[in-house]
Amino acid sequence: MPVNTLAPGQLRAEFARRLSEMYGREVPAYTTLVEVSRAVNTEVLQRSGADAERLGSITRVTAERHGAIRVGTPEELHQVARIFGALGMHPVGFYDLRDAAASAVPVISTAFRPIEAEELAHNPFRVFTSMLTPADPRFFTSELRAELEAFLARRRLFGPELLELADRAEHDRQLCETDAERFLELAVGAFELSTEPVDKRWYETLEQVSAVAADIGGVTSTHINHLTPRVLDIDALYQRMSERGIEMIDAIQGPPRWNGPDVLRRQTSFRALAEPRRMRAPDGTVSTGALRVRFGEVEARGIALTRNGRARYDRLLEEYGDAPEPEVWQRNFPATERGLLEEDLAYFTYRLRADRPRDSRPPANLAGLLDEGWVRAEPIVYEDFLPRSAAGIFQSNLSGKGTRDNSRAATEYDLDWLSSVIDRDIQDPFTGYERQQNTSIAEIARQLGISEDLVPNTSTERKHG
Ligand code: OOG
Ligand code: NI
C-alpha cells in the first residue's frame, strides 16, 4: 500500500492550524480575536457577496494568519529558515526596525512566506522573523554585547531531530505521515512558551536597554510573539473588540479607511495581559512573576502597490505623518482599481473573459482589451509587511522605551548580508507581484494571438488609441 505523504503546502496549513490552537491555549484573548474576526468576515461576505472575496477566497481568509517570532543569532535564524523551508515558506524582504521606532527595537527582520500564487491561495501563512543585533553599539556596550552573545551561544532553540526532519522535508518536498506528525509536534513545541525559570537579574539588565532585547536574549528559548488573523473590515473589528472590553491601541495603523480600494495593509493590536512566568532570583529562589510581552494583533490586507504606488504611499506618510486623513488619500490616490491600474500604482492579474467578443479582432493594448470586454483585471493581494507599522506595533506594546545612543554609528546590515547569514536568497517583495502580473499578461497575449508587447501602463496607450 502506498504511504501517505504530506507536501510542503499541507505541512504549512497543518503547522499554522496547530500553532493557532497552541497560541489560543496560551493567550485566551487571541481566541476572542479569532472569533470576532470570523463573525466580522461572515458579515462582510453577506453584505458584499463576491466583492468580499476579491482579495482572496473566504476559505483562504478564514485560515489566514501571520505569526511573529524573534531570534538572537545568525545561527538561530539559519535554523529557522530550514524549518520554514520545509513548510514551503521563503524569505521575502528586509526590514530594518532599529531606526523606525522611537523606542529601542534592536532587530532586523525578514518574512518567511509562500511565493507562488497557488501556494498563497492554498494557505498564505507567513512569519515576520526578527533577529537581535547585539553588535549595534547604539544599544549595547561591548561588555553587555559579550555577555549577551555568550548567553545566546549556550542556548539551543531547535533540536537535531527537528532540523533533520526539516531538511528531509525540504529536500524531498514531502514527509510521510509518521514523520510529518513528529515534525509538526517538534516544530510547534519549539515556539511554545517555556516553563523554564527566567533569570531575573539578566532579564532586567537587558530590559533596561530594550524590552525586545530582554524578550529575545533574556530567556533560553523562543516563543511565538503574536499570531494575527486577517479581517475584512478592521474598523468594525476594532469597535467590536472595544465593546467587549478589550483595550485596543489607540489607532489602526496603515492607510486610512476611505471610499476607494484597500491598499497594502492595515493593522491594530491590543496588549496581552501579563502572563505568569517563573523567575529565578539571584539567591536561587524561584517564584512566579509576570511578563507582559505578547499581544494580540489583527490585520486587513489590500492590493499590492507597484514601486510607483509604494513611492507615493511613502511620500504621503512623510508629508502627513503615520495616519493621513482620508481627505489626503482622496487627493492623492485614484478612487478605483481601474485608476490604480492606469497610473501603474498597483498590481493586477489579467484573465480572459469567458464572455469576450467572438466576432472581432482583439485590440493590442490592455486598455482596449479591458474596455471592450476581452479581459478583466483582478487585484493582487499584498502579502508583505510595512516597516513603519511593524516598528509601530513593536513600540505600542513595549512598557519601557529602553535606550539608544544616537551619538554612536549604527552597524550596517542589508538584504545581502542577511541573505548570506541564512544561506538563501531573500526575494525582493516587488519581484513576485511583478512576475505574477507579467506572466498573466503574456498568457492572455498568447491566448489572443497578440504578438505586440502589452505593457501594463495603459494610460499612454489610451491617449494614442
Ligand atoms: C513583529 C512586529 C511586526 C507586523 O505585523 O507588522 C509585525 C514582532 O513584534 O516581533 O508582526
Ligand atoms: Ni504582526
Care to give the gist of this entry?
The chain is of the alpha+beta class.
The number of helical segments is 19
Task: Provide the CATH top-level class of the domain at 5-231 and 405-427.
Answer: Alpha Beta
Bound molecules: 2-oxoadipic acid, nickel (II) ion
Shape: globular
List low-pLDDT spans: 458-465
Distance from first to last alpha carbon: 62 Å
Reported CATH architecture of the domain at 5-231 and 405-427 = Roll
Radius of gyration: 23 Å
- Give average pLDDT, whole number: 92
The CATH topology of the domain at 5-231 and 405-427 turns out to be: 2,3-Dihydroxybiphenyl 1,2-Dioxygenase, domain 1
Give the strand order of the largest sheet, numbering strands 1, 2, ... along the chain: 3-4-5-2-8
Please explain how this structure is put together.
This protein is of the alpha+beta class and 465 residues long. Among the domains are: 5-231 and 405-427, 2,3-Dihydroxybiphenyl 1,2-Dioxygenase, domain 1; 347-380 and 430-465, no CATH class. Helices cover 45% and strands 16% of the residues. It is built from 19 helices and 14 strands. The strands form five sheets. The chain has a five-stranded mixed beta sheet. A three-stranded mixed beta sheet has the order 7-10-11. Strands 1-6 form a two-stranded antiparallel sheet. A hairpin with a 5-residue loop joins strand 10 (275-280) and strand 11. Helix 1 crosses helix 2 (28-48), helix 2 crosses helix 11 and helix 7 (160-172) crosses helix 8. It is globular. It starts with a strand and ends with a helix. Residues 458-465 have low confidence and may be disordered. Bound molecules: 2-oxoadipic acid (OOG) and nickel (II) ion. Residues 66, 68, 128, 226, 228, 297, 393 line the site of nickel (II) ion.
